Amino acid sequence: MPxxxxxxxxxxxxxxxxxxxxxxxxxxxxxxxLTKRLKEMQVNGLLERVEDKATGSIDYLRxxxxxxxxxxxxxxxxxxxxxxxxxxxxxDRNADLLMWNVRRQIDLDELPSKQxxxxxxxxxxxxPASTYWLITKPGExxxxxxxxxxxxxxxxxxxxxxxxxxxxxxRSSFARAVENGSFFMSGDQRLIKTFRRWLKxxxxxxxDGIVQVEDAAL
Length: 218
What we know:
- By secondary structure, the chain is of the alpha+beta class.
- It has eleven helices and seven strands.
- It has two domains: about 5-70, Arc Repressor Mutant, subunit A; about 90-200, SCP2 sterol-binding domain (Nonspecific Lipid-transfer Protein, Chain A, 2-Layer Sandwich).
């Protein structure tokens, strides 16, 4: 398969259907190349381009042919968890990419039945932004902001991209990060105490034989 095809399929698998959402999940690909790959995948029967005539919005949906690759994608992810060194997996300090994936893992049923605003600040981010706000409301899509939305913050999180990526991927211990202060939370005690319930870690974080971070600080 041409370069980026597998990654695009992974974004579609993760729920992204709009061009800008797919692009945000794949910061290394140019808009021109993404457009080219989407057209190629459509020709090859891997996706369907669906346009809403009323709004002009366009969604890219996986076909049954593409869905047959789900087990392949899952096996590749598990292989990476078992065989790629944790330090390599965690070397990317792009907070935007991390938070884009994290927003998909919020379990609204485990949050208070009101709006909640969670602010994350990353001291080692290499992305244009280092501070992000997650805004959750019952029954609505989680909103991710890289600029202050102007709401009162319910929970503050101070950490590093490497630390949060580590435990999100199952490469290191969340409990240890909290204990040693490398992942610090302040604010609403209910949100703090239920953090592991409302934020679900990566679906591959429990892969058998996953390679752990050697540095105990993570």
